[in-house]
Amino acid sequence: MKSDRVIEIIAAVVIAVILIGEVIVYTTDQGRYSSGAVLEDGTVTYTMSSGGSESYNVIISESSLDTMTEIYVYYDETYVSDYEEVSVPVGARALDQEYYIEQLVKQLDYRTSVEITVLDASGLDAAMAADIASGDMSKGLIVISGALPDLIYTGNSADDIFQWMNVGGRLYWLGNMIGCQYATVEELVPVDNYQILFFGVECLNDGDSEKAYDAVGSNDLRTDMSLSNNSVKYAVDVAALTAYKGADKVLDAGYSDGTYSSIVMTDYGNGMICIISGDYSNDQRADLSQMVASQLAYDSEILYEDSGNVNRTTVTKTADIGETAGNVSVYLYYGGYYTVYGEYYSLV
Amino acid sequence: MIGLINVRFFSDWSAKKLIVLFLIVGLLIRFVLMPFLTYDFDIYHWAVIIQNIDSGNNLYDLAGYYYTPVWGYIMGFISMFKDLFLNIGTMGMTFVDMLPIESLNYPYHVATITSIGFNIMMKFFLVIIDVIVGYMVYRFVMDRTGNERKAAVGFGLWFLCPIVLYMSSVQGMFDTISAMLLLLTVFMLYRDRCFFAGAFFATAVLLKFFPAFCLIVLVGYLYAKHRDDGQFMKKFLLAMAGALVMLVVLMLPQMIEGQLYDALSFIIGRASTADLWKSLFTAGGIIIALAGMLGFGYLMFRTKKEDADDALMIYVLLSAVCAVLMSITPQYIIVFIPFFITYLLSVNGSRRLFWIISVAAFAGAIVLNNFSLFCSLSEYTSLVSAEWAISSMQALEGTLFGFTYVDIINCIANLIQYIGTILIVVLYFADAVNIRWPKVGRVLYAIRGGERHEIGQSD
Asked: What distance in Å separates residue B279's CA from the closest CA in chain A?
């Protein structure tokens, strides 16, 4: 070949691109993103900074619930669990409980500063007992095992799980019908009237409806929170629950098939239950992360929403929210449906 | 299109003019396709991978990246480019009116549709690769034939090849990079830069696995070139060192993070499947690929020094052809296309088979993806409606004898592509067939065309 130099340059550039890319992949961290929010005289001033090119969303809301400072994630491989196996792409790891939680923790980690603690059955029992004793209203619990362990739930209204929610705990549930069974180290034990125990009314989707093809019409949380999971398997019938509890005790979000919504939150004592519908999926996990990180509750009122782009700069904006009665909070995140950063600010 | 249109029409044109013509036409087609047509599924995952990188996670921390790491590194570079120079904003959104797409019979669709800006960004890099590979084909043909006009035609055949055009400017698939890395490997071997040849070979294998099946041919080339001067072992060790260094450099993060299994899972996943027919097909494909690797490797080892350069081009082509027979996927053939073009132009072979294979692959890809290609366009512009795109896709999922129209057409296209690909190997043995079965031999000659091109082999 006569003109080797050009190909040599190409070869050098190709290697440089790959090696630079490798360095980028393994050195990029959250340090290039930052944000802040303060409330003063009815005006929220929020600041967003990005070293790259990102879209942003800001949601300012008000709720009666206290700020969550720690979230438990239940995982105990010695206990029986019950969730549907889902198919994954070629090369992907099987989406089992362990991998789901492993990823969930990472996804929460870049969305929130809330402490995340993975607990086994006895650890969860001890933590709940301590919370109940202290009246701590700042804890949450994510359950993806399809069955609560018998140490905290046996189908009895006096069980720890109910006492814990009564004092203010937030239960995030997915992957099966909530409370339909409890788990021991040997078996799953069915529970009668479980829907009454958790909701006071029969309202869960136990039929064939699995997918929703419309957005929830009563609010814009689907786009505000960049929600993607449209499964309504194990979901809550919003109308039935609302008829029983009242509209101020129920908030749905995401997608709806006209009866069931992909995300439903409702009160339980001073705490709440949040049902994220469907079997395990990456979309579902992203939605769960958003709901936990934003700390939206069943009585959250959206006071202000903003979106736009922040490109290699710092953007500072204000929102006039006037007088508020509850706890005001800001959840801002970058990347939209491809969230890369999030932060929650309690402005009480 | 060259080959289809008689190139003699441009007989007054110089090679340089031809290249400029092919370049302009190829770029125009790409620039028109890039914003308007996009296959939703693959590019959705590219956005997920950039999301994972931007969120401070590595390639295998979160779900989304299932390949060996090189493509992920390239996306790391693209992510950096985006952050430094572009204002892409949102990479994509989930659209309610796109949700039915996830319930189609063909499961590889998502309702989260990437933005047109993001699509263009991803494809732009692949178009640059197309140009680079085109240039390398030009240089290779020039080197083999010394004919600048043929070299220009080689550039055109690559740059206007339908499946190449489609994969870079519509589907956003990176098989052209695989072709480029294999070409660079061969180039380095031709230049006797064995360390770099090994380095590029390792990189190619860690991008997509198919080039691995060229290993014995590549080693055989070193042997053929250096068996007489006693330098073989030295050159071989140099190449090994290059490959090892690159292997360690590229895989070190996964070794440290304990993610080696994740990094290799795509290859393992392809090889192990619960479906019996798929398992049999995969096993059969692996046997063909291994047979090709060993057989052509053996022939390469036996090649005379003076024939080694020509033989390397042919045996890399044939080994890669056998390798891609493992899986009927349109984009996989791209890895051998530059070598096929170089071979055809070197022996004045008929381009009929080249066009049949590349058009069949293109047809298979476009039928499979069909109206989903309009998803981005429908959601981010008012040129077409999402409802139209979805209903058109649903219409194509109508069935005949229990098979969808898409399946039937795709199956036919795949079959043509597969038979055509096998024919490349069969045609290589046309001379041997002709001796035993002259009638069959004449048919093969008619398909192959051109000069007899036998590789001299040492005893």
From this structure: 14
Task: Give the separation between CA A307 and CA A334, rounded to whole angstroms.
Answer: 9
Chain B CB contacts of A211 under 8 Å are 99, 102-103
φ and ψ at residue B232, rounded to 5 degrees: -55, -50
Hey, is the C-beta of A158 within 8 angstroms of any chain B C-beta? no
Report the C-alpha gap between B179 and B214 in whole angstroms: 12
- Domains (range + CATH), chain A: 1-61+304-348 (2.60.40.10), 65-298 (3.40.50)
Identify the helix (H) or strand (E) that includes residue A202.
none
CA distance B338 to B176: 10
Are A110 and B55 inside 8 Å of each other by CB?
yes
Candidates B316, B323, B359; CA nearest to B340 is B316
**Residue B176: how many CB atoms within 10 A of its CB?**
26
Tell me which residue has tokens 């072709």.
Answer: B179
Across the interface, whether the CB atoms of B66 and A55 are under 8 A apart is answered: no
Beta carbons within 8 Å of A237's beta carbon, 6+ residues apart:
A203, A204, A205, A259, A260
Backbone angles phi, psi at A84, to 5 degrees: -80, 135
Nearest to A22 among B64, B76, B187 (CB): B76
End-to-end CA distance of chain A: 73
Q: Which of A9, A19, A24 to mutate to test the interface with B (most CBs of B within 10 A)?
A: A24
Helices B438-448 and B352-369 meet at what angle, rounded to 10? 70
* Residue contact B188–A11, C-beta within 8 A: yes
Q: Give A341's contacts in chain B (Cβ within 8 Å).
A: 55
B345 and B401 in contact (C-beta within 8 Å)? no
| A177 Rama sector, left if φ>0, alpha if ψ -120 to 50, beta otherwise | beta
pLDDT, tens only, A292-314: 999 999 999 999 999 999 999 99
Contact A24 B53 (CB under 8 A): yes
Say yes or no for a CB contact (<8 Å) between B73 and A6.
no
Nearest to A55 among B76, B90, B267 (CB): B90
Tell me the average pLDDT across B216-237. Answer: 95
Of the pLDDT bands very low, low, confident and very high (cuts 50, 70, 90), residue A4 is: confident
Q: Tokens at residue B236, please?
A: 């071989």
Q: How many CA atoms lie within 13 A of B304 on its CB side?
A: 8
Q: Is A24 on the interface with B (CB under 8 A)?
A: yes
Partners of residue A23 in chain B, C-beta under 8 Å: 76
- Across the interface, do B196 and A103 touch by the CB < 8 Å criterion? no
- Residue B175, Ramachandran bin (φ over 0: left; ψ between -120 and 50: alpha; else beta): alpha
Using N-to-C axis directions, what is the helix angle for B308-324 and B116-145, rounded to 10°? 140
Contacts of B262 in chain A (CB under 8 A): 93
Q: How far is CA B423 from the centre of its chain?
A: 18
pLDDT of B10 higher than 80 = no
Partner residues linked to A88 by β-bridges: none
Distance CA(A240)–CA(A151), nearest Å, equals: 31
For the whole prediction, is pTM greater than 0.90? Answer: yes
Work out the pLDDT band at B8, boundaries 50, 70, 90.
low
Q: Give the list of residues 6+ apart from residue B459 with CB closer than 8 angstroms, or none.
A: none
Q: Do A214 and B191 touch (CB under 8 A)?
A: no
Residues of A in contact with B188 (CB under 8 A): 11
Q: B373: part of which helix (H) or strand (E)?
A: none
- pLDDT bin (cut points 50, 70, 90) of residue A138 is very high
What residues form DSSP beta bridges with B112? B94
pLDDT recorded at residue B341: 96
CB atoms A212 and B47 under 8 Å: no
Q: Does residue B455 surpass a pLDDT of 50? A: no
Is pLDDT of B86 > 70?
A: yes
